[in-house]
Amino acid sequence: MRIAYSTGEPAGIGPDIAVLLAQQTWPCELVVLGDKQVLQDRAQQLGLAVSLVAYDAQREPQQWPQGTLVVAQHDTAVAVTAGQLHPANSGYVVELLEHAGRGCLAQEFAAVMTGPVHKGIINDAGISFSGHTEFFAELSNTEQVVMMLATPGLRVALVTTHLPLIRVAETIQRPLVERVLRIVHDDLQRKFGCAEPEILVCGLNPHAGEQGHLGREEIEHITPALNALQQEGIKVSGPWPADTVFQPHYIENADAVVAMYHDQGLPVLKYRGFGNAVNITLGLPFIRTSVDHGTALDKAGSGDISIGSAQYALQTAIDMALQQQQN
Ligand SMILES: NC(=O)c1ccc[n+]([C@@H]2O[C@H](COP(=O)([O-])OP(=O)(O)OC[C@H]3O[C@@H](n4cnc5c(N)ncnc54)[C@H](O)[C@@H]3O)[C@@H](O)[C@H]2O)c1
Ligand SMILES: N[C@H](C(=O)O)[C@H](O)COP(=O)(O)O
């Protein structure tokens, strides 16, 4: 099995993660999409030995010994200094994602695990980019995808992703809520082996709108979406006040919590599991997992990073690919 790892922003910790992941063996061929010069420099900075092997798509996938990096070469536009962003390298970052996404669509890769990118510098370079989730949806012509982060004991999926807060309320419409919940339900069944997923759905407003006194999105959009799905036998409940639903008492029997927006759900997930969590894009025609953190520019090249999330993201990609082979 061959899994792509896109190293993301070259000045961030994505290359460090590649070097550190190579210090252990994995039950797959991990193909590192990036620039070998950057990887070599970062390995040297970290004081770790790596042996670079050029990726060959025609070669049978194989498991390589510890310390080996199989690199699909992409050249950065300008030399990279750890911790220092350069907009000229944004095209390179996007090129890695295109290779990864197209490779998955063509089944060259069984899955992609993405390293962190810096959304700001990509946009500064004049490339419109709001996140991997949206990028891969567009690349694969998928109308609806869902961002879900998972850590042991908690999965949080989002109705809206990288959307300015001012636009969230108008975006919470019944058809969207229904589409997202269907994807979460179906993917929990197909990809995570939950026979009858129990899904808790947050309201949008404080106290889930307090019977309409604090907002009407629950009454007009979320509840009708839940009713429609419940009539089909799908186990969704809510809208729950978001400050209540994350209590252990509620989440311990749930398979996922669906939050209405990014910072309603992800702070809870990251508080519980930062460093041991994975970001998974549901609804795509291929498997995509990611680390739960950003570029950590302040730590690039320092050796003072955790690769717990990267290990979890890679293992999740492998597990999902195996599950898909069995289906
Ligand atoms: N998967 C992704 O591509 C992804 C995810 C989140 C944020 N981002 C992007 O990353 C950029 C920086 O975002 P930010 O500063 O809010 O978040 P960040 O995760 O990069 O950093 C937040 C803090 O956590 C630390 N940190 C992060 N990962 C770490 C690790 N593996 N080990 C040790 N410490 C770690 C950093 O040093 C920093 O102190 C933004 O452009 C954001 O959009 C990308
Ligand atoms: N929301 C994600 C997180 O907090 O981890 C992060 O921004 C990455 O999103 P994409 O996977 O869409 O790039």
UniProtKB/TrEMBL annotation:
A Pfam family recorded for this sequence: PdxA
Residues binding a divalent metal cation: 162, 207, 262
EC number: 1.1.1.262
InterPro entries recorded: PdxA, PdxA_fam
GO CC aspect terms: cytoplasm
Record's cofactor remark: Binds 1 divalent metal cation per subunit. Can use ions such as Zn(2+), Mg(2+) or Co(2+).
Main location: cytoplasm
A single GO BP: pyridoxal phosphate biosynthetic process
Pathway membership, UniProt: Cofactor biosynthesis; pyridoxine 5'-phosphate biosynthesis; pyridoxine 5'-phosphate from D-erythrose 4-phosphate: step 4/5
GO molecular function: 4-hydroxythreonine-4-phosphate dehydrogenase activity; cobalt ion binding; magnesium ion binding; NAD binding; zinc ion binding
Reactions accelerated catalytically: 4-(phosphooxy)-L-threonine + NAD(+) = 3-amino-2-oxopropyl phosphate + CO2 + NADH
SUPFAM superfamilies the record matches: Isocitrate/Isopropylmalate dehydrogenase-like
Residues at which substrate binds: 132-133, 270, 279, 288
Protein keywords: Cobalt, Cytoplasm, Magnesium, Metal-binding, NAD, NADP, Oxidoreductase, Pyridoxine biosynthesis, Zinc
Co-factor requirement: Zn(2+); Mg(2+); Co(2+)
Protein localization: Cytoplasm
NCBIfam families attached to this UniProt entry: pdxA
Function field: Catalyzes the NAD(P)-dependent oxidation of 4-(phosphooxy)-L-threonine (HTP) into 2-amino-3-oxo-4-(phosphooxy)butyric acid which spontaneously decarboxylates to form 3-amino-2-oxopropyl phosphate (AHAP).
The protein's assembly and partners: Homodimer.
Additional record remark: The active site is located at the dimer interface.
Family classification: Belongs to the PdxA family.
Entry protein name: 4-hydroxythreonine-4-phosphate dehydrogenase
Source organism of the structure: Pseudidiomarina homiensis
